Amino acid sequence: MTFYDLIIIGGGAAGQMAAISAKRNNxxxxxxxxxxxxxxxxxxxxxxxxxCNVTNIHLDKSIENHYYGANSEFVKSIxxxxxxxxxxxxxxxxxxxxxxxxxxxxxxxxxxxxxAKTITALLENELKILGIDTHLNTEVVKAIKGxxxxxxxxxxxNQEGKAVTTNQFQSKYLIISAGGKTxxxxxxxxxxxxxxxxxxxxxxxxVPSALxxxxxxxxxxxxxxxKMELEVTSIIEGNEIKTRTDDVMFTQxxxxxxxxxxxxxxxxxxxxxENKSNVQVKINFFPGKTANDVKDILGxxxxxRSTLTLEESLFGLFPTKIPAALLKVIGLDKNLPVNxxxxxxxxxxxxxxxxxxxxxxxTRGWNEAEFTAGGIxxxxxxxxxxxxxxxxxxxxxxxxxxxxxxxxxxxxxxxWSSGNTAGKLKGSL
Length: 429
What we know:
Blueprint: E1 2-9, H1 13-25, E2 31-34, E3 55-56, E4 67-69, H2 72-79, H3 84-94, E5 98-100, E6 108-111, H4 116-130, E7 133-135, E8 138-145, E9 150-157, E10 163-176, H5 191-198, E11 203-209, E12 213-214, H6 218-222, E13 227-236, E14 239-250, E15 254-256, H7 258-273, E16 279-284, H8 291-304, H9 310-313, H10 321-330, H11 343-354, E17 356-359, E18 362-363, E19 371-376, E20 394-396, E21 403-405, H12 410-423
Parallel strand pairs: 1-2, 1-10, 2-7, 10-20
Antiparallel strand pairs: 3-6, 4-21, 5-6, 8-9, 9-10, 11-19, 12-15, 12-18, 13-14, 13-16, 14-15, 16-17
Helix pairs in contact: 1-4, 1-12, 8-11
């Protein structure tokens, strides 16, 4: 049996941050990270399309508008201890210079190298400098709390992921940061939930979030591969829930792109957790414009060039493939001269351009989801320390908790901040 003062299960962003925080705050602790994959931080490498969206400049503003699951006071408590400025300073101190992506006003921060490997390499270097042990290909299958310590049974896995030996570890304190269920091929298979449940914790049913949606609609079929900035709104049981403006990709199976990912959470919960239907997405091809606004815009174009066909009159407003496809699915003749349009036809066009609705059949799965909605019920976790209310010396951090954020660096920010807080072991030391 190998003994440590602190063991951290899961070597992702939150787990590595927890280890660094623990060692910096308590240099005498003997600390180890146990991870079931062959390298640390594999999901970091795919963040931000491989560039790693480290955090967001809007993090400290309106936290309640960017995070879901736990109540806002719980989330605010953690960020009050390790804020946006702290995250930036932490990475600057490691040697990572960050820059704000300017092509949108979303506020994403990336390393100047535009390589996620920069982040993982410097985190691993810091773990080595601090003398933190790392046990890779090590899957914890059982964890119990004895009178004074935690005892862990862990399998050593071969390249095929099969157990070849079993080892035991013992520690005074335990942090579970095993992640959610997204990208199971990268290590997050939901096994951390079972460990939490073995200590008596409740799990809010996890569902995939920030993911594409499946909708067999004629427009997606006509526009496969086309991408443009649109305004999209989720409609559940007839109620408009969330509106976002960003790129939308039309695909063979339905809709994808950042705008869709940002409205997918509530859709996924409704369909995958509550097993309900009656979901739509409304598309506005003129973000921020009303039907009357668009009617005026088109009217001015038509008055200027009244002999154009309906299709030609829309050139310049959209990618060239969109006008013919949209007119086809709504049933308007693309060759109709604009000066021959009836009021009914104009209204049909304007309505379709500002509120084209598609029925949603399903979402895509865990392999295409960026985040997990659900996890350990935060009502059973102390908001100031992230220590379990049920088991002394047991802490949680990262995606395994029922906290998830918007696309744009908010989820990694939660990993850094919650990992830093949990690593302080404030409830125990």
